[in-house]
Structures are given as structure tokens and as C-alpha cells.
Design goal:
This protein is an alpha/beta fold. It is built from 16 helices and 9 strands. It is globular and about 65 Å long.
């Protein structure tokens, strides 16, 4: 058995209620820079009130600047992009708003140094906002506070980072330089860099990265494989994922996973400390995605550890209600009342998701890895009588069970 993983929720201003109502289920909030700059008063007010309500809650700000190295359509650059760029400075305020950034845009050492300094200063100064007290009163009432203190320091700082294909990629060189530069500006606040890469298979060894971090006295690190879908990944990819977690832990680092679902939670058995996700979304993310949006109404099926649209979830529950509908209160109540799952509101399904995620974290903290493998195999047995569902939903669970049970490279 292992300690319960630390869950960090990616902040969305349009679902504040879930952060408030499920406070006991997560450790902290990661605020995207685009939200911190586009909705500064609301974000600051809510986070300040939340941290005042629960002193154990932590926050940090994710620069998400890799967006600007991507070739998305810049014909109609939106205001959030301009505000992000302003925080980061040149070349974000110049070239990145008209074209994708290139490694050579950071050849000048002062350009990179100034970008890192501005990025970290924004994160450190977020607590110092002086908003109108009338605006802040709204969040004070929302959290039921009679009084509150000032917002504290972020739990950690995230230097600017870029997506790289390999450790020979020029973008890794830029990201590495950002990490090194950050150590000069962070003061006493810990740095937790993001290793943002394209594919697990493209990184031959993480040893040099680990050595760099430890040399700079950096103890924690986020893994961020771009747009990584754990239910679609091959067994080879999942094994590389597992080994990277194990190796980082073995070297004395605390590895976290920036976007992940149940497989990320399972990696706690191999040394991961925590993971991040959104509420109803966010188990993967393409750093080039720039449109924003709201989670759609889908139903999380705990035994499958994934979202299904309502008709698919209904079909599965109808065929085996005791197994697929018996673990969670919402679905059990729907079965008893003969209420169709497509009648559920977005609010109900998001509350349900938060309950499921909590059960997943509780399960691995209370049971050995052998029980996690047994549970996955038990689900496969229940899917065996449903060939289409077995192929569609069971393949990933089978791979996960194999990865949990197979040897990892020492």
C-alpha cells in the first residue's frame, strides 16, 4: 500500500462550485496563466477565499507558454493570448502573436533571462493584488468567511517550458536554460519545472535531466507528455511511463504528472507523488489547443475509469447493473428510480466524477498493487460477455494490468 496521491485541480473559473464543495478531495489548484491574466480579480478573489477557508490548500500558476510555439491560426488573436504574452515579454509580445515561436527567438541570453524573470515575478506577485473590497466581498460570502487573511505565496514556481521531441531537440535546450535561469530568481520558493515532451518513446533516458535538477537542488518535477491518452496508449508506451516515474523516484526526485487519470493514480505504486486533472476534463492536453471550452455532459464509469456518453453508459449499466452501477451513489439511485442517465445534468455528472476520483485515490492508498491488478481483471471478466464493449473499453484495462504486473527496468 502507498500514501494517497496528491491531486491538483486545473482551475476553471466557470466551475468554482466544485472546488468549493469538494475541498476535502484535493490538495491544491493549478491556475493557467491565461485565466490568471484574463480573469484576474475573480481568480484572485476565489483562490484567496479558498485558501482562507482551508489553510492546507495550495496554489500555483502554470505559464502554459508552449502554446506560442505551436502553429495555430493567428488571424484573430484573442485578448487572453495578448495578456499572456504581456506577462512573458518579448518575443511573446512581438513574434508569437503573428507566428509560431522558434528556438532562435531565444538565442539572445537576455531575452530568455528576462522572459523567465517576468514569468516568475508574475507568479510571486499574484498574492499582492489590491482588488476592490466590494468585489472581494463576493468570494468572502461564497466561502462563508467572516474574516480572512492575505493570500500566501504560491506553493511552487513553474518556469516557462516548451514541448520537445528529444533531449537533442533545440526546444529542450531552451527549456533547460529556463530551468537554470529560474533558480536565480525564485528566492526561497521551490521550483517545480514541467518536462513537456512529445512522446514517451522519444526519450531514451531521463538520467541527464534528473542530474541537472538535482544539481540545481530541485526536488520535484512534473511530467507532461503532450496529448497523451492513457486509454489509447500502447503497452510499450505505458511501460516507458512507469519506468520514468520509477527512475525519477529512485534518483531522489518527487515526480508528478501534470495531466492524468486513473493510470496516473496507479503510478503512485511506482513512486509518483501526485497528478493533475480538470473537473470533467483534463486527463490529457494538447498544449497547442487555444480555444477554451466547457466540459460536456458525460458519465464517469468507475469500473472502467473513464467517461462515456450517456447512451453508452446506460447500455453498460443495463446489462450489468450490480457491477457497473453499484459502486457510486448517483448511478445506484438512477437504477433504483429507473431514471435514465441521459436525464442527468452537467452539475450532477461533475459531482459524480469528483466522487469517483476520490474513490480511485482511496482505493490505491488502502490496497496493495496486487488488488489493483485483480480489480482490473475482474472488470475484464464482466466485459467478457459483451464482445464490443470488451474491445472498446477493456483493451486499455488489460494493458494497465499487464504494466502493473510486469517487471520494470532497474
Amino acid at each position: 500500500m502507498v500514501q494517497r496521491p496528491k491531486q491538483y485541480l486545473n482551475y476553471q473559473h466557470n466551475v468554482q462550485r466544485y472546488f468549493r464543495d469538494h475541498r476535502e478531495k484535493y490538495e491544491g489548484i493549478i491556475i493557467p496563466l491565461s485565466i490568471a491574466t484574463s480573469f484576474p480579480s475573480g481568480t484572485y478573489g476565489f483562490v484567496r477565499a479558498l485558501c482562507a477557508k482551508d489553510s492546507k490548500k495550495q496554489y500555483a500558476i502554470d505559464p502554459r507558454n508552449a502554446l506560442f510555439q505551436k502553429a495555430w491560426n493567428r488571424d484573430n488573436v484573442r485578448e487572453p493570448h495578448r495578456k499572456m504574452a504581456k506577462v512573458l515579454g518579448p518575443p511573446f509580445t512581438t513574434d508569437s502573436l503573428t507566428r509560431a515561436l522558434l528556438p532562435e527567438d531565444f538565442e539572445d541570453g537576455d531575452t530568455l533571462k528576462n522572459c523567465v524573470q517576468q514569468c516568475l515575478e508574475f507568479q510571486m506577485q499574484f498574492k499582492l493584488r489590491a482588488d476592490d473590497e466590494r468585489k472581494l466581498e463576493k468570494y468572502k460570502k461564497l466561502l462563508g468567511l467572516k474574516s480572512w487573511q492575505k493570500l500566501g505565496e504560491p506553493q511552487f514556481l513553474i518556469p516557462p517550458y516548451f514541448q520537445f521531441d528529444s533531449l537533442k531537440d533545440a526546444w529542450w535546450t531552451i527549456s533547460r536554460r529556463c530551468i537554470v535561469a529560474a533558480t536565480k530568481f525564485a528566492g526561497e520558493l521551490p521550483i517545480r519545472p514541467v518536462l513537456h515532451f512529445s512522446r514517451w518513446a522519444d526519450i531514451d533516458s531521463w538520467d541527464k535531466v534528473f542530474e541537472l535538477l538535482l544539481k540545481k537542488e530541485i526536488k520535484c518535477v512534473w511530467y507532461y507528455p503532450n496529448n497523451f491518452h492513457e486509454h489509447q496508449a500502447s503497452q510499450d508506451e505505458l511501460e516507458l511511463y512507469r519506468d520514468a516515474i520509477f527512475d525519477a523516484n529512485n534518483m531522489g526526485l518527487e515526480p508528478y504528472i501534470l495531466f492524468g487519470g486513473y493510470f496516473a493514480i496507479l503510478m503512485r505504486y511506482f513512486g509518483s507523488v501526485g497528478f493533475g486533472n480538470g473537473i470533467g476534463y483534463g486527463e490529457w492536453r494538447d498544449s497547442g489547443y487555444h480555444r477554451g471550452g466547457t466540459a460536456s455532459t458525460r458519465v464517469y464509469i468507475l469500473k472502467l475509469h473513464q467517461f462515456l456518453d450517456a447512451p453508452a453508459a446506460q447500455s453498460l449499466v443495463d446489462r450489468d447493473p450490480e457491477y457497473f452501477g453499484g459502486d457510486t451513489e448517483l448511478i445506484a439511485e438512477c437504477i433504483e428510480a429507473e431514471r435514465p442517465l441521459d436525464d442527468l445534468s452537467l452539475e450532477e455528472t461533475l459531482d459524480h466524477f469528483m466522487e469517483c476520483r476520490n474513490q480511485e485515490m482511496d482505493f490505491i492508498s488502502e490496497n496493495p498493487i496486487s488488488d489493483a491488478i485483480t480489480e482490473l481483471n475482474e472488470t475484464l471478466e464482466h466485459l467478457a460477455e459483451m464482445p464490443l464493449e470488451r474491445e472498446k473499453y477493456g483493451t486499455s484495462l488489460e494493458r494497465w494490468a499487464n504494466v502493473l504486473g510486469s517487471d520494470h527496468e532497474d
